[in-house]
User: What shape does this take?
Amino acid sequence: PFSSCRPKVCIVGSGPAGFYTAQHLIKARPDVDVDIYERLPVPFGLVRFGVAPDHPEVKNVINTFTQTAKHTCCSFYGNVTVGKDVSVGELQQAYHAVVLSYGAEGNRSMGVPGEDLAGVYSAKDFVGWYNGLPSCQELSPDLSCETAVILGQGNVALDVARILLLPPIKKSVFLPVPTVCCLNAVCAELREMVNLPDTRPEMVAADFEGVKDAVKDLPRPRKRLTELMLKTAMEIPGEKEQERRNNASRVWSFRFFRSPIEIMADPDNKRTAGIRLAVNKLEGSGDGARAVLTGEVEDVSCGLVISSIGYKSLPIDPSVPFDSSKAIVPNSMGRVQQAAGLYCSGWLKTGPTGVIATTMNNSFDTARSLVEDMDSGTLDISAAKPGSQSISGLLEKRGVKPVIFSDWEKIDSVEMSRGEAAGKPREKLLTVEEMLQVARK
Ligand code: FAD
Assistant: This one.
């Protein structure tokens, strides 16, 4: 049949990278069939499980992804874990090309004593918990403490802080890693923090000494951000703002030049009771400036420590090249090195930095490389390949039942109607079992 002569591509992972790669492929090569395999029964990766619930507008990209998923050339197979239910080698046998877009599901650890105590979490798990990721539902963190410490200075750290400032946590301390501040991407989020209802910032003015002189030489996004921090830290607020701050019941602050040395335990040696920090100072100037230890330490009492120091991609199949030092699949323009027919996009390709727009661009680049290889003959698409037909057979033999896109739409509609009843946009299903139950009705 005609369809068997079509080039067949499969994509592993249905986050922004997977969907944007699919979107570009379908547009550039209308003769291509694209199948997306996803570990969970639900699509959209970190758009569903990462993006903060108080940023619903960011989730609008789901509409574009849905259009792609419903395209006649595209199929979605959820509930299939590549590397476990089916190997990358088996996918390569069935498809002309395989694009790995499975994101970054690990996290960097702090490597300090006490990291395993109750009350210490990675931002990855904490975000997964408040966003309804099934594997993080057992976390159930105790939020009754007075102070939380967040280590890190990126968008994710600010997301976590905003969310924490909603429940009755009294104080949230920010502790960036001890490098020169590089808060380029978070200007909007910082503005949000400064204006967060019922909270007041408490910055340490001494941290900003000398910063004023450096501001004029900064590139534009960083300049605006630094000016906003300076204003918040140094300026005496107007009467109305002062009143708002006086009445605030919760406090947040940034503490620069600190790095964690140890998480301290309570007398029972079970829960975290505080964190010991090294105090750093800058040596050198400009891009060569480095934070070095001063020898001073500082203890902060807290009941919650969240380390937001980066996500990390993991290898899923021993046959796929993996650069453990950079935690990415080594590639040039999305072509996996020394692996013909294998491509990668998204955070797995670049490392876990960048927003959805960045991920979109690098995924379009990968799709372009793939199309170029098809057009030039570098990628052999002359022989017919079975695509999903053979993979479905394999999965059936292994007792794995994929969730297709119309099954996801059943889950979606149950979640939306539960949300409507609770007066919110969506009430997520929290276990894979329940998702599968709804999908199979
Ligand atoms: P992911 O979104 O992680 O998608 C990977 C997918 O692969 C997942 O669905 C996963 O289940 C699946 N997968 C994993 N392993 C397998 C396997 N073995 N087999 C099959 N499937 C697998 N960007 C913004 O623009 N605005 C924001 O407000 C914003 N907020 C963020 C908040 C947080 C907490 C985080 C972490 C990121 C945020 N980002 C935001 C960044 C954005 O989420 C990323 O740029 C983007 O999601 C990366 O896309 P990806 O497809 O590479 O990875």
About this structure: The longest helix spans residues 356-376. The domain at 107-311 is CATH 3.50.50.60 (FAD/NAD(P)-binding domain). The first strand starts at residue 8 and ends at 12.
